[in-house]
Design a protein that fits this description.
It is built from 6 helices and 35 strands. By secondary structure, it is mainly β. It folds into 4 domains: 135 residues, Glutaredoxin; 103 residues, Immunoglobulin-like (Sandwich), CATH 2.60.40; 120 residues, Sandwich (Lipoxygenase-1), CATH 2.60.60; 87 residues, Immunoglobulin-like. The protein has a 5-stranded mixed beta sheet. Strands 17-27-22-19-20 form a 5-stranded mixed beta sheet, with no helix packed on it. The protein has a 5-stranded mixed beta sheet with strand order 28-35-34-31-32, with no helix packed on it. A hairpin with a 5-residue loop joins strand 1 and strand 2. Helix 3 crosses helix 6. It is flat. It starts with 30 loop residues before the first strand and ends with a strand.
Length: 498
């Protein structure tokens, strides 16, 4: 946890067990000034069709220095940068927030040498960029393609960098080509709370002709919500944010945007037409496992699992005094349809250390490895997938999730079940048939499992039936109509859009 980077013997390259920003993700944009006072914008460089290499390093990091001294990025800059074929661009990003100009100049104990002399590509001292790219060790090298997708490439030769750039997707393709570039709307939806959001998408013209119109379809959890017929005037590579009507979301939702008909024509490249993103709380099955491997400073680590009332159900106190480099596992069997929060804290403020270090006078030894190595790790999982796997979380983090039971109930058998129209605005008709008399309860639920309206609770005789549902006062969003006989249930999804 205490990263004493001023000691020459203190070599930390691994900061986390979680992978960097995922390959294929949209690269976070940045506008930053280098050490010579020149301002750069990443997207402006990419829009020129150039591939960008980001070397995110720290002045105190020996592997970073070794690669810097190899001269491979300097060769790449000279041969393929602005002074060469002008196909690529290189940035050196100093990712440690404590770095000074004296460190870069090689004049302190916290540096491996002079990083400036002989470096002709821009040097930017900006830890925010490193944080945006979620780097987990130094050095981390990324290739950012002109289409703004990012790939980790490693410490490779100039020739290998140039070769890898040929794998970038063709940037501008055809005459009429619109891209669903990135999601631009709300992502923070508190668990258990109904939230009104404005879905937004950034579209991009990747054709040679100006983009003056296109269709954009929004689906929420598999149902079509709205289609926007966009008009404007975007030159090649330009972007614009397009907003949809507000929708109501409870806890989480899957949004899928599909763009089509650029300039009223068939799209010359359909590979970039659909973008899907999940927003809001993570979902977990009822058995959730929390596992943590401590570092050299276990006394700084605390955690609590709390329910939606704020009551603590489990914590580090259940384990007694924590030892260093020890793995602790807690398995939680939770109730369905409830929100839970796992809170992890670090009193020193820098998460858990992972890597070979020399803690000097620290008395803690490591039962799982060498005396100079403490392999910290943190994970929170269920059978529905990984919810958290990161150790560089500062002074603390909260992981919210909502539980569900994948085998909750038997499905009720009904004949000719239909719910229409769907999507609906003010009125919905539910029709069904039953083979024998049943006592049925029909209820409208929101996505969090909360009752919006108890529609019917009565006996139905054998035969066909219809139920009218008035949704005039129901907000836009995704809902569920449940029909139960007390022992079994059948559910149909309902979309309200007005």
């Amino acid at each position: 946890m205490k990263k004493i980077i001023l000691l020459a013997a203190f070599i930390v390259t691994a900061l986390s067990v979680k992978a960097q920003i995922a390959d294929g993700s949209i690269a976070p944009d940045f506008t930053a000034t280098d050490i010579n006072g020149v301002e750069y914008n990443l997207y402006e460089i990419l829009d020129q069709g150039k591939t960008v290499i980001l070397d995110i390093s720290a002045t105190w990091c020996p592997p970073c220095w070794t690669y810097h001294q190899s001269g491979e990025l300097e060769t790449l800059w000279e041969e393929y940068g602005p002074d060469g074929t002008d196909e690529m661009f290189v940035f050196f990003i100093e990712g440690d927030a404590t770095t000074t100009m004296a460190d870069l100049e090689g004049n302190t104990a916290a540096t491996e040498g002079d990083w400036i002399t002989g470096t002709h590509y821009p040097i930017i001292d900006n830890a925010d960029i490193a944080n945006d790219y979620q780097i987990t060790y130094f050095p981390t090298l990324f290739m950012v393609c002109p289409d703004r997708t990012v790939t980790e490439v490693g410490q490779i030769s100039a020739a290998a960098h140039y070769s890898a750039s040929s794998d970038c997707p063709e940037f501008v393709t055809g005459i009429n080509n619109v891209s669903a570039s990135s999601y631009s709307g709300t992502t923070n939806i508190p668990c258990g709370q109904e939230t009104t959001i404005t879905p937004e998408i950034t579209i991009r013209n990747l054709g040679t002709a100006n983009l003056t119109s296109c269709d954009i379809e929004l689906m929420v959890d598999g149902s079509i919500i709205e289609t926007v017929q966009w008009t404007g005037d975007l030159a090649s590579t330009e972007t614009e944010v397009v907003s949809f009507a507000d929708i109501s979301v409870n806890s989480s939702a899957e949004l899928s945007f599909t763009v089509s008909s650029p300039n009223g024509q068939a799209d010359d490249s359909e590979s970039n037409n659909t973008l899907t993103t999940v927003i809001g709380s993570q979902r977990a099955e009822l058995e959730v496992t929390f596992e943590i491997t401590t570092d050299f400073w276990p006394e700084e680590i605390t955690w609590q699992l709390k329910d939606d009332t704020g009551a603590t159900l489990f914590s580090n106190e259940d384990e007694g005094a924590l030892s260093c480099d020890e793995t602790y596992t807690q398995v939680y069997n939770l109730d369905p349809g409830k929100c839970y929060t796992l809170s992890i804290q670090d009193s020193y403020g820098d998460g858990i250390l992972n890597g070979a270090i020399n803690p000097n006078s620290h008395s803690c030894t490591t039962p799982n490895g060498q005396n100079s190595t403490a392999m910290g790790a943190v994970s929170l999982t269920s059978n529905a997938g990984m919810m958290f796997n990161q150790i560089d979380y500062g002074d603390g983090t909260d992981i919210e999730f909502i539980t569900f039971d994948p085998n909750a109930v038997e499905e009720l058998s009904l004949e000719a079940l239909n719910l229409f129209p769907n999507p609906a605005s003010n009125n919905v008709t539910l029709s069904f048939g039953i083979a024998e008399t049943k006592d049925l309860e029909i209820t409208l639920y929101n996505m969090f499992g909360q009752v919006v309206e108890s529609i019917v609770d009565q006996t139905y005789n054998t035969g066909s039936h219809t139920v009218e549902i008035n949704t005039t006062s129901v907000a836009n969003g995704m809902y569920f109509v449940n029909i139960t006989d007390g022992n079994a249930v059948i559910t149909r999804k309902l979309t309200i859009t007005k």
